[in-house]
Design brief:
Blueprint (H helix, E strand, L loop, with lengths): L10 E4 L20 H5 L7 E4 L14
Parallel strand pairs: 1-2
Protein backbone atom coordinates (compact mmCIF):
# COMPACT_ATOMS: atom_id res chain seq x y z
CA UNK A 1 0.00 0.00 0.00
CA UNK A 2 1.37 3.41 -0.97
CA UNK A 3 1.91 5.95 1.78
CA UNK A 4 0.28 9.34 1.55
CA UNK A 5 2.22 12.43 2.53
CA UNK A 6 0.32 15.10 4.45
CA UNK A 7 -0.50 18.29 2.59
CA UNK A 8 0.03 21.50 4.48
CA UNK A 9 -1.66 24.79 3.64
CA UNK A 10 0.07 28.08 3.03
CA UNK A 11 0.38 30.72 5.74
CA UNK A 12 -0.66 34.15 4.44
CA UNK A 13 0.04 37.41 6.28
CA UNK A 14 -1.83 40.70 5.91
CA UNK A 15 -0.62 44.01 7.35
CA UNK A 16 -2.50 47.14 6.29
CA UNK A 17 0.22 49.48 7.65
CA UNK A 18 3.38 47.73 6.41
CA UNK A 19 2.30 45.28 3.72
CA UNK A 20 2.29 45.42 -0.05
CA UNK A 21 -0.06 43.62 -2.42
CA UNK A 22 2.97 43.03 -4.66
CA UNK A 23 4.60 41.05 -1.83
CA UNK A 24 4.53 37.26 -1.54
CA UNK A 25 2.54 37.23 1.70
CA UNK A 26 4.37 34.19 3.10
CA UNK A 27 5.97 35.83 6.14
CA UNK A 28 5.22 38.83 8.37
CA UNK A 29 8.06 40.68 6.59
CA UNK A 30 6.48 40.00 3.17
CA UNK A 31 2.86 40.58 4.21
CA UNK A 32 0.16 41.62 1.76
CA UNK A 33 -1.60 44.93 2.42
CA UNK A 34 -5.22 43.97 1.78
CA UNK A 35 -7.33 41.05 2.91
CA UNK A 36 -8.84 40.79 -0.56
CA UNK A 37 -5.43 40.17 -2.16
CA UNK A 38 -5.03 37.13 0.08
CA UNK A 39 -8.56 35.77 -0.13
CA UNK A 40 -8.41 35.75 -3.91
CA UNK A 41 -5.27 33.57 -3.78
CA UNK A 42 -5.85 31.39 -0.71
CA UNK A 43 -7.29 27.89 -1.00
CA UNK A 44 -8.91 25.49 1.46
CA UNK A 45 -6.46 24.58 4.21
CA UNK A 46 -4.51 27.86 4.06
CA UNK A 47 -4.19 30.03 7.17
CA UNK A 48 -4.58 33.82 6.99
CA UNK A 49 -2.91 35.92 9.71
CA UNK A 50 -4.26 39.49 9.88
CA UNK A 51 -2.24 42.15 11.73
CA UNK A 52 -4.13 44.69 13.85
CA UNK A 53 -5.22 47.75 11.92
CA UNK A 54 -8.14 49.38 10.18
CA UNK A 55 -9.08 47.69 6.93
CA UNK A 56 -11.55 49.09 4.39
CA UNK A 57 -15.18 48.08 4.82
CA UNK A 58 -15.24 46.25 1.47
CA UNK A 59 -12.13 44.17 2.28
CA UNK A 60 -14.03 40.91 2.60
CA UNK A 61 -17.14 41.78 0.63
CA UNK A 62 -17.98 39.86 -2.50
CA UNK A 63 -19.36 41.61 -5.53
CA UNK A 64 -23.12 41.26 -5.84
Amino acid sequence: MASVSPVYGTDWYVDVANGSDAALGGTPATARQTIRSVTTNAVAGDVIHVAPGTYGEAEGAEAA
